[in-house]
Amino acid sequence: MKKLLFLPFFLALLSPTFAQQTTQTGKTPLKIIVFGAHPDDCDLGAGGIASIYSEMGHKVKFVSLTNGDAGHQDIGGGELAKRRLAETKEVAKRLGIEYDVLDNHDGELFPTLENRLAVIRKIREWNADMVIAPRTNDYHPDHRNTGVVVQDAAYLVIVPNVLSSVPPLTKNPVFLYFRDRFQRPNPFRPDIAIDITANLAKKVHGLDAHVSQFYEWLPWTNQDLANVPKDVVERKKWLTSSIERRSSVTPEIKVTLEKWYGKEKAETVKFVEVFEICEYGKQPTPEDIKRLFPMLP
Q1: Which pLDDT score, from 0 to 100, does residue 10 have?
Q2: Per-domain residue ranges for the chain?
Q3: Fold of 29-292
Q4: Strand 98-101 to 272-281 pairing
Q5: Rounded to whole angstroms, what are the CA distances from 286 to 29, 112, 124, 173, 269?
Q6: Nearest-angstrom CA–CA distance, 64 and 102
Q7: Prior bond to 185 cis, omega within 30?
Q8: Which residues 6+ apart lie within 8 Å of 2 measured at CB?
């Protein structure tokens, strides 16, 4: 009879709910939220670290501020938005994360009060430790405006009288920017570089779910559609080559890798995701960064 008393507790340890409350180290899971303009932007900038966090027992949410209903050469509107939403759900399964899509039109995103409050709500409800978004200098207005909206939320997430229907955060998260190639008015600064070499295949597996984008729309915009393999295995290899190039280590990034990993380990890193620390929000110490990026040595 005494043995049976322990059975409910033992089963609770095995339940998904219990698993969601602990990590590999037994500590409270980190809560990471990533904002992008379109359904696939978060995946490109942070799909690698998202898969690592998930494997370690931490929690990641991707949020697309538009429904992506303009990003295709043959279909659009509600039909495309529905397809892209289904793609994000598949990504969430593959990476072990959550994925939200807001119902703003693709190509029509503005830094309105409504969008700012929506972002504040998402950050608060997720109780985020860290927020990642694009910078405000980018070729696409939706990308730029996503950066503006998230920046505008950076302080207000702790202000009780702003969006008073949702309790404010008791601490300000660290805000980071994705890696990008743009030089004006100021180039991207690689403050934090994370080795995703072992998880590159998983990142590509997530991106592969965005069929409408990586095998149809983006190749069409680059006049490269004819070179996309028809075979699903071959086209994934083709996509892998593209993501490897985007994730490469530059001399500047190598300096950052050496800072966080040491010279010996930095020499072995092939592929990275890189982030710039935003001047808004909490300004992290090196100890904060190692806590927020527990995959660092």
Answers
A1: 41
A2: 29-292
A3: Rossmann fold (3.40.50)
A4: unpaired
A5: 19, 34, 25, 15, 21
A6: 6
A7: yes
A8: none
